[in-house]
Design goal:
By secondary structure, this protein is an alpha+beta fold. It is built from three helices and six strands. It starts with a helix and ends with a strand.
């Protein structure tokens, strides 16, 4: 993995989130991915389980509900790449409805490991609500 490929993956991550397209989500992750919405969660294991969780169709302790189109925007960038390990930092902004002012801002950190096909095989998210 390198910074360019990591950024491309992060851009695809945001695009998949915006559409909730099962194929786009699944293409991000390895068959045996271990995905954590919070560092203290037991992982959601397997691509199909992660896709279902993202789409609000399956179990996933700590998973957020499906976001409505136009109610969020996100930008993430790699800050460290070491072999298959990538650490990314970013910001997510939420609106109550499309066109409304931003009402919540989260600062995010992702810790990820990738396979040889640039699919994420381990994903852990850390986030904090920015004070208003």
């Amino acid at each position: 993995m390198d910074r360019r490929r990591a950024q491309e993956w992060l851009d695809r991550y945001v695009a998949a989130w915006e559409t909730y397209d099962a194929e786009s989500i699944g293409a991000l992750f390895s068959d045996d991915v271990a995905y954590r919405y919070h560092p203290y969660d037991d992982p959601i294991v397997g691509r199909a389980a992660v896709v279902a969780s993202w789409r609000g169709e399956g179990p996933g302790e700590g998973a957020s509900t499906r976001d409505e189109p136009g109610t969020f925007e996100a930008t993430y960038a790699p800050i460290a790449v070491d072999g298959d390990l990538v650490v990314a930092q970013g910001v997510t902004r939420y609106r109550k409805a499309p066109g409304d002012p931003v009402h919540q801002v989260y600062d995010n950190c992702f810790v990820m490991r990738f396979d040889d096909a640039d699919r994420c095989r381990e994903f852990t998210e850390f986030y904090v609500l920015r004070p208003s």
